[in-house]
Amino acid sequence: QVQLVESGGGSVQAGGSLRLSCAASGSIFSMNGMGWYRQAPGNERELVAVIRGGGTNYADSVKGRFTISRDSAKNSVYLQMNSLKPEDTSVYYCYANIRQSSIRLTYTTYWGQGTQVTVSS
Q: Are 8 and 66 in contact (CB under 8 A)?
């Protein structure tokens, strides 16, 4: 089984910074992409940032403010969030596409439990 555990959420004033961490553990043979989504009350879950194959992609709303990074040795992904705005307030979820063994050829997407980020004006 695979588990993703997030940390680093909290409350901050506008203009502040937070760093989210997400560590995957369990039966992991390889990973193909990790990233972050967020979901505010009443809204659909939206992609924030993705890191895959050394490349990154960001939602337009966070470009230039957020940076995604990955530590493959630790099966971890991070999201450095700077210049936070009240509209960044959401529950942030990390995900990872994981292949669990050399026998299983497909990747399965696993999700973290979510961490709350609240930005006050």
A: no
- What is the structure's pLDDT at 10? 97
CB atoms < 10 A from the CB of 26, how many? 12
Nearest to 95 by CA among 23, 9, 19: 23
Each residue of 36-58: pLDDT tens digit? Answer: 999 998 999 999 999 998 799 99
Instruction: Say if CB 117 and CB 62 are below 8 A apart.
Output: no
Alpha-carbon distances, residue 21 vs 6, 24, 44, 104, 106 (angstroms): 6, 10, 22, 27, 25
Instruction: Look over the chain and give the mean of its residue pLDDT values, rounded to a whole number.
Output: 96
Counted residue by residue, the chain has a size of 121
**Alpha-carbon distance 48 to 107, whole Å?**
21
> CB-hemisphere CA count at 13 Å for 32?
9
